[in-house]
Each structure stands twice: as C-alpha cells, then as structure tokens.
Amino acid sequence: MELPLMVNQDRLVKVPAAPGLYVHIPFCVSRCDYCAFATWEGMEDHIEAYMDAVISELRFRRSGGWSEIPGSIYFGGGTPSYIPARHISRVIDEAGVRAGTEVTVECNPESTDIEKLRIYLDSGVNRISLGLQSFSPLVLKSLGRSHDPADIFPVVEAIGEARFDNYSIDLIYGAVGESESILEDTLSKVLSLSPAPVHISAYALSVEPGTRLAKDTVRHPDEDYQANAYRLIDDMLSDAGMNWYEISNWAKPGYYSRHNWNYWMQGEYVGVGCAAHSHRDSRRSWNVFNMGRYISAVKDGLDPVAGSEDITGEVRASEALELLLRTSLGIPTETLGDRNQIDFLYTDSNGMATLTLDGRLLANQVALRLDPSKVKPDRIGHLQLQPPR
After folding, report:
1. Cβ atoms of 127 and 104 closer than 8 Å
2. Is there a domain that residue 308 lies in?
3. 125 in the same domain as 60
4. Distant-in-sequence, close-in-space partners of 205: CB < 8 Å, separation ≥ 6
C-alpha cells in the first residue's frame, strides 16, 4: 500500500505526506573499527533511562505540532537488537502505525533470536535489516565485527520461523584481506540463504575521521579494488533478480526501503534519540551527540536539539539533484550542464538522465557538473515518488 503524497512549491519530487520517524539506539556489544556514529559499548545500565528519554522526546515532538502517524519507522544505531525488545514495542506503541507503515529494526547476528523477532512482529515491525557485512572470518576480523560467520545461519532461520518475508542484508566491501573470490563467496552464500533476503545494501568501506580504522593506514581500502568489487556485486545481484535503485542498494521488485527512499527524495522525517536528525518545514535539525547530555536535557524538559539550518531555494535544489543522481529515478537531463565527455556515464530516457554502471562509479564527479538553475519550472513537483522497479 502506497501512502498519500504531498508536494511543496520548491520540491522536485512529491514525497509522503506523513514524515518518517527515525529512532536512534546507540548501544552496541562492541564498537566496530570503521564506525563514526553515536554509539557506545558497555553502557547497558543506561538503556532504561535512555529509552525513557526517547519516549519523552517523542511526546515532546507531538506537543510541538507533529501529529501525524509516521509514514515509516526506522530503528537504527548502534545495534537496536542489543536492547530488550520491549523498548522497541514501547516506541512503536507511542508513535502509532497504520496500514502501509514500514517498520524496520536493524539487527546484528550476535544479539538476535526467535523470541526477540516474535516480539518485534507482534509490535508491528515488518522489516528486518541484518548487519551481516561478510561471510569471511578474515574480513569480519578486519572490520572489527563481533560475530562469526556461523552466527548468521541460526538468525536467518529464526527470521524465517518468525515469518518475516521482508528482510534486508547489509554488506561492506573493500576491507584489507578481501579479494574478489572472497567477496564472490560471500555473495553466493547470501543469495543461497533460506529464506533469501529481498533487499541488499552493499557499502564501500570508508575511512571516517576519529575511528580506529582511520588511525591504521595499513587497513585503508584500495579504490581500484572497490570499483571492481562494485561491478561484481552489481552483476551477481542483477543476475539474482535484484534491481539497483540507489547506488548502494538493490531489491527484489516491490521491496525497496520506503524509509530510505523518503530520505533520498527529500521527504520529511523526525529523528529522536542522541545525534538523530530531523527534516521538517524546510528546516534540518540535529540532536546533541552525547548520550548523557541527551538524557539530562530531556529529563529537565529541554529540547535536545543542538543546531539547525534552513534548507530552501538553490540549496534544496542542489541537494535534491545530488540525491536523485544516486537513484534509478535519475535527474532532469538539462541539469547536467556541460555534457562533453560524460555521455557514456548516463542514459537519457524521457528527459531523465540515469547513471550507467560506469556512471555510478563516478557519481561524485558527475555531481560536480550539476546545475540546479537549469531545472525547468514545469519540473517542480511533477516528478512522482515512483516505487523503484
């Protein structure tokens, strides 16, 4: 079921009328070496107070004028599956769901079991995102992950037993020690899982400042290898009947991530929890990063927002083009500006330019040529939020 759409005069794309809801869960078994998110390990004693603060913030947002039932709910982190499942239920009960609401919980193999999955399902969760990353022990160790390949199979079996027919798998490619044969083995095993995932996100390993990976230059990824790895991923997933709809995402027909698609279409969303971002009424805001400061602020009845900025006019148009460029929807061809020597990077259909495989690998370079001032007036609001194929 597709949710109602709305359009503002400065938007290129129609977006869901009801904003999405992002819930940040910052707790982890251990911090991965590449992670730069607001996450903490060994903080189990803070879970109850933190989730109470999340509920309080959600009510605060409601009192501030946000009355709609969310168009989607996404629990990210951190590791949402690490905390007791009843906390996920509490948030869903507070936020509300309706027919057509996609509710996703990010899970890791080491903290997910059948009992937890059944509670999720009974609470209204209908989509699981499983952080598998790789089937290679070498790659998992290089990434600093806390699970082993053997942990994956029981969790997938539990997903099937709990009757989740919509689950996604996250992969990371480009870690030191990975080869194309290792990656091919991971992909083959992922595609042979039963039940099989209907969605796969595959991210190139990136080096973020301040992470353990950033300090260890020997483990920094090789860009040439990552380009070859991306081609392999796209070939194998395409052969398996998955269509790319965003540079790092592939899905079976009808199983794209509605929550993330809303982000990429510049839809509105409310974020609750430390470091969570929101986008409402052409304003982007973000909460305080530190978990302790977040809990204290909410407990004292204060707004935990740390900063905000207005997103209007040319800034919105420019960001819209950069986001759309990464998707299978594409961008209005006239916005490409100087097209000399880049015609092989995109296909032109009905005035929309969509990146080819080579174009996806060079998306950042193509983005430098975008000219939002070239958008034709009759384009505004007429690009539909088309479900990816």
Report:
1. yes
2. no
3. yes
4. 34, 143, 172, 173, 174, 175, 213, 221, 226
Does 382 reside within a domain? no
Residue 300: inside a domain = no
Read off the pTM: 0.92
For residue 357, give its domain range: 314-376
Longest dimension (CA), the chain: 59
Same domain for 184 and 321, yes or no, is: no
Query: DSSP state, 327?
Result: B
| Residue pLDDT tens, the chain, 389 long | 344 433 343 455 556 668 999 999 999 988 888 888 888 888 999 999 999 999 999 999 988 878 788 999 999 999 999 999 999 999 999 999 988 899 999 999 999 999 999 999 999 999 999 999 999 999 999 998 989 999 999 999 999 999 999 999 999 999 999 999 999 999 999 999 999 999 999 999 998 898 888 888 888 999 999 999 999 999 999 999 999 999 999 999 999 999 999 999 888 999 999 999 999 988 999 999 999 999 999 999 999 999 999 987 778 888 888 999 999 988 888 888 777 677 788 888 888 889 999 999 999 989 988 888 877 655 555 454 455 65
**Which residue type does 120 have?**
Y
Shared domain for 371 and 229, answered yes or no, is no
86 and 23 within one domain: yes
How far apart are the C-alpha atoms of 77 and 26, rounded to whole Å? 5
Residue with tokens 């380009």: 227
Residue with tokens 């400065």: 10
Could you tell me the CATH number of the domain that includes residue 148?
Answer: 3.20.20.70
Domain count, the chain: 2
Do 178 and 318 fall into the same domain?
no
- Answer for the pair 21, 270: CB distance below 8 angstroms, yes or no: yes
Alpha helices, H only, the chain: 47-63, 85-95, 114-123, 137-143, 152-161, 180-191, 212-215, 223-239, 258-264, 291-299, 313-325, 357-361, 363-367
Q: Residue 280 domain-assigned?
A: no
